[in-house]
Amino acid sequence: MRQAIVSSLSPQDDFAEAQRVLNLEAEALCQLARSLDHSFEGAVDLLMKTKGRVILSGIGKSGHIANKIASTFSSTGTPAFFVHPSEASHGDLGMITLQDTLIMLSLSGETAELSDLINYAKRFDIPIIAITRKAESVLSKAAIHSLLLPTSPEACPMNLAPTTSTTMMLALGDALAVALLKRKGFSEKDFKNLHPGGRLGRKLLHVVDIMRPYKELPLVMKDTLMGEALVVMTEKGFGCIGVLNEEGDLVGIITDGDLRRHMSPSLLSQKVEEVMTHSPKTVFSSTFAVEALGIMNRKSITNLFVLEETTGRLVGLLRLHDCLREGLA
Asked: Which of 128, 149, 229, 254 is 20 to 30 A removed from 163 (C-alpha atoms)?
């Protein structure tokens, strides 16, 4: 039977330990930032020139970090994947092409399981970027660019479990991926294309992506009689009508609220310009959909007519229901 572990530490001790760990790792990251040299710039240059994929590899905790870095590269426009060094020795070397670049993680730089990968890369002239602490290690010497981690104690009180070192590896991988995406001019549109199903992708939707196009809009001229306008409003089913002037510019809107405020026996014989709300709230087609939703929430409205930013011409209608359908609420 497993014996229960009884601790004499208090919750205050736990809090103090958490602060110690976070402060230690934060200082290590600051030290890493100060220690960056031209090797980092060279690594980004090499990744920019890579025609194939970026292959990440490492064993143990370094392997877990390498896997995450590969995912970050892929989600920011650089095709990348993780190859387990043990599996590589049993056939997965065939996943690596001569057009690829290897990023290999090992704190000591002497990890035995990486030897077959290193030898394969040297044999076929596949460039290696090393993330390690030892400048004189086998891995560092085999690499074209070696990104060295500063000597910082692990957060583990015994200075054994990889904690501070893996935090630095992860942050350095993020730094490479972000520097590379900026070099490539990776845009919000590119990011959205790679994240169509996630919440991040939905947040990057623009109004133009979900608005109702011009041909579907309920529109009338400002001298139209309300009787005719109500027919248009009913047929379209959007709960509003856009009002245009002779040049085709949007000059007003009629909503259910306007109808209630002007309800009278003469309503149907009035012209729409007598009933409409002048200068309606609008949004540009290039606006993020979540921003447009925020406008609707603040103004307590359910529709926004959409203008093209460069010309100011009416191009669509965004409804609250469209935003809800895309899961933006």
From this structure: 128
Residues 131 and 26 in one domain: yes
On whether the CB atoms of residues 305 and 282 are closer than 8 A, the answer is yes
Q: Is residue 192 part of a domain?
A: no
Say what the pLDDT of residue 239 is.
Answer: 87
Task: Please give the C-alpha separations between residue 261 and each of 40, 173, 175, in angstroms, as whole numbers.
Answer: 66, 60, 58
Token look-up 């490479």 returns 176
- Alpha carbons 104 and 144: distance in angstroms, whole number: 12
Residue tagged 């009278």 (tokens): 264
Answer whether residue 51 is part of any domain: yes
The CA-atom distances, in angstroms, between 221 and each of 60, 74, 185, 243, 305 are 70, 51, 44, 6, 15
Q: Which of 129-138, 252-261, 285-294 has the highest mean pLDDT?
A: 129-138
Q: Which domain holds residue 246?
A: 207-325
Tokens 């049993």, residue? Answer: 90
Give the β-pairing of 128-132 and 212-213. Answer: unpaired
Instruction: Extract the tokens encoding 152.
Output: 């910082």
- Note whether 204 and 210 are within 8 A (CB): no
With cut-offs at 50, 70 and 90, classify the pLDDT of residue 54.
Answer: very high
Q: For the residues of 70-110, what is the DSSP string, one character each?
A: HHHHHHTT--EEE--HHHHTTTGGGG--TT-EEEEE-SSS-
Of the listed ranges 50-54, 59-63, 196-200, 237-241, the one predicted with least confidence = 196-200
Q: Strands 80-82 and 54-58: what pairing?
A: parallel
Write the single-letter amino acid at 247: E
| pLDDT at residue 260 tops 80 | yes
For residue 3, tell me if it sits in a domain.
no
Which token pair is 31? Answer: 């030290």
- Tokens representing 196 are 């169509």
Residue type, 99: Q
Same domain, residue pair 37 and 87:
yes
In whole angstroms, what is the distance from residue 64 CA to residue 105 CA?
10
- Residue 194 CB coordination number (10 Å): 14
